[in-house]
Amino acid sequence: MPSTDRHLLCAQQHLSAAEAIRGIPERSWALVSYFYTALHVVHAALPGVPNILISRQHPESHTDRTQGAEGTNWVLYRDPNCNVIYQPYTSLYNASIDVRYKGGVIASDVLRHHRTELRAVARWACGILHLDVQDCSCWLSLI
Q1: Which of 56, 88, 93, 139 has the most CB atoms in a 10 Å sphere around its CB?
Q2: Count of structural domains within the chain
């Protein structure tokens, strides 16, 4: 499993990619990068969630329980320390599915809304990781 630092580096890379393509006509793909930023931010923070089961610290799928494992969406929904970000995270997830597999086109204002959801996920992670928002500059400062 990747370390917290590795997840945060991946988050920074996805966010940089999103910011690079946000202003071009194919900006919808920025949303996919926003989702993967959120995924890595969540996975960086999960091991630090109070009282989280070890089996929930490193989900191997996106969705519900599959093959005996709990996916990220399921963990965020079920764990009382994580469910505060279930809605913004799954909104990013579902919108990224629309872009990737259904050819969804995202307007600039909708993309800004999803950046707000990403900000909520990032702030939650800063709290779990006991980081000041300023310390999260690798990925939060660009949001």
Answers
A1: 139
A2: 1
Residue 57 lies in a domain: yes
User: Which residues make Cβ contacts (< 8 Å) with residue 96, sequence separation at least 6?
Assistant: 31, 32, 34, 35, 36
C-alpha closest to that of 74 among 101, 50, 93, 51: 93
Separation between Cα atoms, residue 130 and residue 127, nearest integer Å:
5
How does the average pLDDT of the chain come out, rounded?
A: 85
Q: In terms of Cα–Cα distance, which of 68, 69, 81, 16 is closest to 42?
A: 81
Phi, psi of 20 (to 5 degrees): -70, -35
Give me the CATH number covering residue 52: 1.20.120.330
In terms of pTM, does the model score above 0.85? yes
